[in-house]
Design brief:
The protein contains eleven helices and 14 strands. The chain has 301 residues and is an alpha/beta fold. The protein folds into two domains: 210 residues, Rossmann fold, CATH 3.40.50.300; 60 residues, Alpha-Beta Plaits. The protein has a six-stranded mixed sheet with strand order 6-7-8-3-9-10, with helices on both faces. Strands 2-1-4-5 form a four-stranded antiparallel sheet. Strands 12-13-11-14 form a four-stranded antiparallel sheet. The structure holds adenosine-5'-triphosphate and magnesium ion.
């Protein structure tokens, strides 16, 4: 598998304040990678470093094999970047702005722009400065996608988009992924990340605390399962199962919390005559909250 984004000890300090502490990342080609964390955790800093817009104060990173400092231009040619605070040039119309950028990039297939404009219902004939927030964001999305870059670095891309456009945007992200390209995005909208991301990383206070596939995170998570029995639930047998973290009985139903696989629990329960099984799949939001809330030891340095 090709790695398109790789960082080693990547760090950034602003004067005395360290925003990012030695991040090690490996993002494979053809995935949607959700980059998450509470406000101020360092998502924007990471994305701006990877886009070659900030200079790291520690470590290094490569995009498509090109060092983001030494080979900045070659890396940037392969990147589409949407800043978190996209403003464009207020005096230009969307189309004038996109043509200007397309020229800088040495030409863009204009049918791609037309297609993006239709899908997002973007207004390109109005001056960017007079557009609503969401309409301006659409211009920002088009400029990031229009040259069909290998890597998209998107900082909170759906900010300001209405739900229909948001859905179309997520479809666009999946299309890009299905073409084998890579999308690295930050977001605070967890259901949206759950809907598109293959992998997620969670930052806290400038440190990576988790990098995992979404499937694996879900498989490892605590899940609730309710088992109803013909007779009284065999509480002791259920509690004896290693994966069971909690079990309570009400009437003929046992309410159980399991960590990871439920198969051992189901094997233990089966001989006692199970009449109903209700499982509650953990959603990513619950999983993230456990990580967001987690205390991480303060700066060891
Ligand atoms: N130019 C700067 N000078 C000083 N400190 C900065 C600067 N830019 C960012 N920081 C600090 O670095 C930390 C990380 O900022 P960053 O913008 O990366 O956060 P974020 O994870 O994107 O947050 P949010 O989710 O709110 O967008 C914050 O504590 C922020 O105050
Ligand atoms: Mg940010």
């Amino acid at each position: 598998m090709t790695t398109v984004i790789r960082s080693a000890g990547l760090g950034k300090s602003y004067r005395s304040r360290t925003a990012l502490h030695g991040i090690n990342l490996e993002v494979p080609a053809g995935v949607v990678f959700g980059y998450l964390g509470p406000n101020g955790a360092g998502q924007t800093t990471t994305i701006r470093l990877l886009a070659g817009l900030l200079r790291p104060t520690a470590g290094r990173a490569e995009v498509c094999g090109f060092d983001i400092v030494r080979d900045r231009e070659r890396a940037q040619r392969r990147i589409g970047y949407l800043p978190g605070d996209f403003v464009g040039y207020p005096d230009l119309t969307g189309e004038q702005y996109l043509r200007f950028l397309a020229n800088l990039r040495g030409g863009v297939d204009w049918s791609v722009v037309q297609d993006l404009r239709k899908r997002l219902e973007a207004e390109l004939t109005t001056r960017i400065g007079t557009l609503s927030h969401g309409s301006r964001q659409k211009v920002g999305i088009i400029q990031a996608f229009m040259h069909q870059p290998e890597v998209l670095l998107l900082d909170e891309p759906t900010t300001g988009l209405d739900p229909l456009v948001q859905r179309e945007f997520l479809a666009l992200v999946r299309d890009v992924r299905d073409q084998g390209r890579t999308v690295f995005l930050s977001s605070h909208i967890l259901y949206e990340v759950e809907a598109v991301a293959d992998m997620v990383a969670i930052l806290r206070h400038g440190r990576l605390i988790v990098v995992e596939s979404v499937d694996k995170l879900k498989a490892q998570a605590m899940r609730r399962i309710d088992l109803t029995f013909e007779g009284p639930p065999p509480l002791a047998d259920l509690q004896a199962v290693a994966a069971v973290r909690d079990a309570r009985v009400s009437g003929s139903t046992a309410h159980i919390v399991v960590e990871g696989s439920t198969s051992a629990l189901l094997r233990a329960a089966a001989p006692h005559g199970v009449t109903q099984i209700v499982t509650h799949e953990p959603d990513l939001e619950e999983i993230f909250m456990t990580y967001y809330g987690q205390e991480v030891s303060p700066d060891a340095a």
